[in-house]
Amino acid sequence: MRRLSRLPAAVALATIVWLPTLGVAQETAPPAEPEAAETDAQAEFKDEVMRLVRQLDARRAGERAAAFEGLVALAGPTSDSADRLLAALPRANDRMPPAVRAGLARVQREVETRVAQSSTVESRVTLDVEGATLAEVATLIEEQTGNRLADNRGNFGQNVAVSPITASFDDRPFWEAVDSLLDTAGLTVYNYGGDDALALVGRDDGARQRVGSAAYAGPFRFEPLRVVAVRSLRNPTQNVLNVELEVAWEPRLRPIALSVPLSELTARTASDARLSMLRPEQSIDVEVTPGSKAVEMTLPLVLPDRETDKIASLSGVLRALAPARRASFRFEELDRVLEPKRESRGGVTVTLERFFENNSIWELHMRLRLDDAQDALASHRGWVFQNTSYLVDEAGERIEHAGFETLMQTETEVGVAYLFDLPTASEEDSQPDEGDANPAAGYSWVYESPAGIVRTPIEFKIESIPLP
């Protein structure tokens, strides 16, 4: 991810030239040092971006549409190439024509959505190992997929010895490959191990194998855990068949919330008869606990007659609210923050409001705003408080915050006060001079957050669920 850093003196002395048609500030700087000189390719890329941005205000609709498609095409197929485009786009402002502002917003939303959709394609694994250790296999999988596997058996007092692993996969989906490997090694997954890894533990005696127990859709794994039939003797309309599912995802993903609208859920028997949902107007919504790698969802169906011994198929749509990508924000020289400072990445704006000392504790007040929140702040705010926030001193040492307080919340914005315990002048110098610098001098603040939130639909189908 691109990080902001202190600008070199050559850029700081740049003169500003305005393009009145767009309201975009362009910097004309003195010749840069050779090592900082912009490559021809970079310059051509920025020139092409600005040409297409100006074209967003063309008179003809076809030319405006071509400019939009051209900018989206420049985003490329990867998250890094998308970051490159988003960093090159000018920030929307009131001096721009409305068509340009609207076009830039559309481009940002489209790029963020495509990045998110690309992340919901399953990872694939190719392995050909013989007598390999678990650690060696885990390393190979992480290199190919970005998914980290961690051996957590020691944390549970389990035997850490595993027989050498022999496996051969050719372009297999991640979950299919992992389930097969875990069955071979007598392992399973502990979904609440924290961190960004899939925690592996020993499988309990009598537990069924993972292969054949679940359905796969994209980077998600759907496993029916329990089926509970409830028959009300007083009110038969309250009879219910609860199907409890475990929905897991590849550890490289960080979903915020998952939902399954019951109106989009279809259950059929072996005779192809359709089973009704108990409350079809409802949606089963689950907020993801930070650090977990799965959630459980209970799907309520109308209790069928006793002759129905299984659900032949259960299909629906999982809607995943997830970050499109992550961005890093860096604010330098905190002692000089006399008024709010703002930085934007994609559809996210971070505002540093002030940094001050309050009874020996330093407070950093900030606001995070999402242009298109997708309900991520209205109903699901837990992810915001998991964002990374820390200071960096002059020596480059990282200083974690000691806690935080919520200052404000709306549907599109949240304000947080981060608390830092910094050394005071008396701790560093027993006899400080009258002309001592501001204690905040030399500190920078780094904040990492998703640069956009999108809702992605994942179609799934589970077959042959036995009924009690």
Spell out the key features of this protein.
468 residues, alpha+beta, Phage tail protein beta-alpha-beta fold, Immunoglobulin-like, 4 domains, six-stranded antiparallel β-sheet, five-stranded antiparallel β-sheet, 8 helices, 26 strands, 20% helix, globular
Word description of this protein:
The chain has 468 residues and is an alpha+beta fold. The protein has four domains: 80 residues, no CATH class; 90 residues, Phage tail protein beta-alpha-beta fold (3-Layer(bab) Sandwich), CATH 3.55.50; 119 residues, Immunoglobulin-like; 113 residues, Immunoglobulin-like (Sandwich). Helices cover 20% and strands 38% of the residues. It contains eight helices and 26 strands. Strands 11, 12, 13, 14, 16 and 26 form a six-stranded antiparallel sheet that branches. A five-stranded antiparallel sheet has the order 18-19-20-24-23, with no helix packed on it. A four-stranded antiparallel sheet has the order 8-9-10-15, with no helix packed on it. Helix 2 runs antiparallel to helix 3 and helix 3 packs parallel to helix 5. The protein starts with 8 loop residues before the first helix and ends with a strand. This is Bacterial type II and III secretion system protein.
Shape descriptor: globular
The end-to-end span amounts to 51 Å
Report the structural category. Answer: alpha+beta
CATH class group of the largest domain: Mainly Beta
Percent of residues in helical segments? 10-25%
Give the low-confidence spans: 1-37, 426-432
Tell me the major beta sheet.
6 strands, antiparallel
